[in-house]
Amino acid sequence: MYDVVIIGAGVSGCAAARELSRYNVSACVVERADDVCEGTSKANSAIIHAGYDAKEGSLMAKLNVEGNQMMTKLSEDLDIPFKRIGSFVVCTDEKERGGLEMLLERGKKNGVPDLRIVEQDELRKMEPNISDDAVAALYAPTAGIVCPFELTIALAENAVENGVEFKLETTVENIEKTENGYLVKTDRGDIETKCVVNAAGVYADRFHNMVSEKKMTIIPRKGEYYLLDKSAGQHVSHTIFAQPTKMGKGVLVTPTVHGNLLVGPTALDIENKEGVNTTYDGLQEVGQKSGRTVKNLPLRDVITSFAGLRAHEEHGDFIIEEVKDAPGFFDCAGMASPGLSASPAVGKMIADMLRDKLNLSEKANFKATRKGIVKASTLSIEERNELIKKDPKYGNIICRCEMVSEGEIVDAIHRPIPARSLDAIKRRTRAGMGRCQAGFCSPRVMEILSREVADINMENVTKAGGKSRFIVGTNKDRW
Amino acid sequence: METKHLTCIGCPMGCSITVEMEGSEILSVTGNTCKRGDIYARKEVTNPTRIVTSTVRVTGSDLTNMVSCKTEHDIPKDKIFDCVKALKGVTVKAPIKIGDVLVENVAGTGVNIIATKNA
Amino acid sequence: MENYNLVIIGGGPAGLAAAAAAKEAGEDSILILERDNQLGGILNQCIHNGFGLHTFNEELTGPEYANRFIEKVKDLNIEYRLHTMVMDISEQKVVTAMNRNDGMFQIQAKAIILAMGCRERPRGALNIPGYRPAGIYSAGTAQRLVNIEGFMPGREVVILGSGDIGLIMARRMTLEGAKVKVVAELMPYSGGLKRNIVQCLDDFGIPLKLSHTVVDIEGKERVEGVTIAEVDNHGKPIPGTEEHYSCDTLLLSVGLIPENELSKDAGVEMNPITRGPKVNESLETNIDGVFACGNVLHVHDLVDFVSQEATTAGKNAVKYIHNQENKNAKVVPVEAKDGVRYTVPVTIRPECMDDLLTVRFRVGGVYKNHFISVYLNDERIQHRPRQIMAPGEMEQVILQKKQLLAKYDLQKITICLEEK
């Protein structure tokens, strides 16, 4: 019997797990995918919003601003990249300037520090590639960028280090109320628990509706993106939003923490909760809209495109609460944007609720810090040679676009949440994330994975678990 | 009279060749820019042949699991699949030198399979 | 820091030929740095035949062609390091490299030859919509899996792009027992050699659909099918022309990009058309003593031409090392015009060129019955008819030193296509 079962190993679930692991608690996270960060958390804008967007008094506003403030310390504790690069909301029509004032006021009320409106001269100095049409912008210096994979993985690993269990490739099929809590029925057996945290992203409504009479609807809202080569990564140095106008919402242009440029998203409500396909129209739209705020975008340097689903709840706010007619069942639902930004605060809020519900006491030996995979490419020659002397695998480059060594890949395979697929290795090490998109390194990474893990061989290596195998047989086997 | 249009595969130029035939008799070959094209065209309309390249498994090589190979000469086009099927399950032992015969008289064509890589 | 007169980045066909030529020109201090576990580069996985007709007057497979140069490099006792990744090249010609045994090390070179080759364009560069399951490979990745590792990446295959690797893989997969259902090509013409269409597609009855592209990829975990559609003149899919193919594999052969990240970081100026360095007649970049050859300079159709070009680079690097370059020579730009997309080189110093200089280029579309013309200033000096020219094949003109020198007021050399 667990104290807490968290459904979903996205950034909310993993943040909750990590915060919860401060207490003396038996907890596990159940995730249907083969890795953490496989749903909404992996395909988004990778930005930490300042917090002026959400409606004053909303949970989104509160947790966004708090989450933003927590991010500096959290990124240091968890050894993950986070850069407070600041953001602009760009107004390209003098008549719409009032919209910036409104955002400024809202931001102030939400408690966003240092917001101000910059006029075009200053704006152009700060951001030379801003559109010639730009008249002014709302500047939010506290906005930042983060790697959503590394954040989620780091939270999960730190939770494991502090005693939380992760059950991957485990799909929750039903949830039944029991005398002392809940019976979580999965395809890998039943799990008894006192409390459940429903952090299931676009599926949060399904699990909520299993236990509550007050039904919930989560609408997957698709967003499509372009990721550009690092050669385009310096095109802008802040996150550039288009001011929402009657012409629509526009797309953002932002550097990523790894030096690429990200452009998107679209916003289309769809029915299919698995609909993470990109579309011809969506990609066209991103291309067309991207020119509104930033000029001369080198779209020919696109290295990949992707789509993510935001878990939009019909009332438009986060729902983080104990379900009224299901005591011990906590929703963490509607985690659309700014869900990533808010995640540190979301995790804390959920852990606080569970602490109070279960009377949890603080752990004496909570380990707040976690060491990430060494980023060999950031080391000096001396440091690197030190490392290679200890382990020659760090001298063997496997992914030549991102200069990832064998040592880093082997580390990823043997960490607290072990990488078991090429995507899992990619998210941890960036091998395959570069301009050739794994064309060169994938056979080599497959070899390493099959060498390092007893029950993995070349023929059953997967891209992302399940049936996503790369190899279907050997030469001439069907002759 | 029958006219056949071919693209020469003798070299990467890919000349467009026209062959005029009367029954099985070749009346003329035009469009080729070298002797090789003439030979190719005459063969292609009567007895088309191809060099077949493939791989077989090799054990004991620290370079590779597969050693590349080819038919020593061209074989009839309709024997291509028989040839590759005959290579199924063939395993050779390192060391292998370029030119080593790996399979003799493959699929009854009278042509040997030879290694194209050291392993 | 170690010192070598000549460091060659890459031990593929370009690097090997450059090294051999440099050694034969009298240079003894040469080092080849190769990231793979063997010399030969991508030729090792190109097991098909058709290489070497120009160079050796016989038809070799890729590994055989590579081996001729590998043997030569070994016979000439040229030093090389395998498993060695070059991490950085500085403008001062300091090469930083790394491998398991030596760790990270630096070499001061007097001259450098860039011979890193090219890489394949990934799916993302084409913005093909759909899911992102397993089963989407660049043709070269599939080629490695099949030819080097002996594994089948799929059973039922659709290929996008009719570049040579795509065509070659259509045949390879077929011979290994897979069913190749169709090859779709965005352009109205194939990007590959004609002979490959005949012997890789026609021989096996594989249809080639020109002016078609993939508009959807299905399958969440593994590819389950793709939809292709016809495109209009702007490459835009035409609604109503969609055709669905069930398959487990999509191979992409949609172009090659010279691998110039190291060059750019070193400050080498790039030609935006070729995505390779801008070079002069000696194949020297804007950085003195840094030369380029092979697919890192521009994507070639035939390896024979890579070897020829690399030989030139190797010889010129030796001239540079021994201060035999004329620094004050007049520089004449070469202009690519009217159907000629680019030229290599982009500048020529007539005083520095050999008696004969090959200028290579590609055309921008399919041209039938056109002339390749060369102008010195406004004077036409060459006018050569060509029955057919296509972007998939490289073209060339040969310039004579004495003719260029004779034109004392030479300001510009123009290479263009003309109808008459």
Automatic annotation (TrEMBL), chain A:
Q: What is its EC number?
A: 1.1.5.3
Record carries keyword Coiled coil: no
- The BFD-like [2Fe-2S]-binding domain is annotated at 397-450
Q: Where is the FAD dependent oxidoreductase domain?
A: 3-353
- Is the keyword Oxidoreductase assigned to this protein? yes
A Gene Ontology MF term for this entry? glycerol-3-phosphate dehydrogenase (quinone) activity
- Kindly give the InterPro entries that the UniProt entry links to this protein: BFD-like_2Fe2S-bd_dom, BFD-like_2Fe2S-bd_dom_sf, FAD-dep_OxRdtase, FAD/NAD-bd_sf, G3P_Oxidase/Oxidoreductase
One Pfam annotation reads Fer2_BFD
Q: Which domain of life is it from?
A: Bacteria
**Keywords of this entry:** Oxidoreductase
Name of the top EC class for this enzyme? oxidoreductase
What is the name attached to this protein's record?
Answer: Glycerol-3-phosphate dehydrogenase
From TrEMBL, chain B:
Its signal peptide is none
Upper taxonomic classification of the species? Bacteria, Bacillati, Bacillota, Erysipelotrichia, Erysipelotrichales
Q: Which residues cross the membrane?
A: none
Q: Which Pfam families match?
A: DUF1667
Name of the molecule in the record: CxxC motif-containing protein
Query: Which domain of life, per UniProt?
Result: Bacteria
UniProtKB/TrEMBL annotation, chain C:
Q: Name one GO molecular function term.
A: oxidoreductase activity
Q: Which residues form the signal peptide?
A: none
Keyword set includes Membrane: no
The name on file for this protein is: NADPH-dependent 2,4-dienoyl-CoA reductase/sulfur reductase-like enzyme
Question: Sorted alphabetically, which keywords does the UniProt record give?
Answer: Oxidoreductase
Mind giving the lineage of the organism this protein is from?
Answer: Bacteria, Bacillati, Bacillota, Erysipelotrichia, Erysipelotrichales
Q: Which InterPro entries match?
A: FAD/NAD-bd_sf, FAD/NAD-binding_dom, Metab_Enz_Cyan_OpOx_G3PDH
Which residue numbers delimit the FAD/NAD(P)-binding domain? 4-310
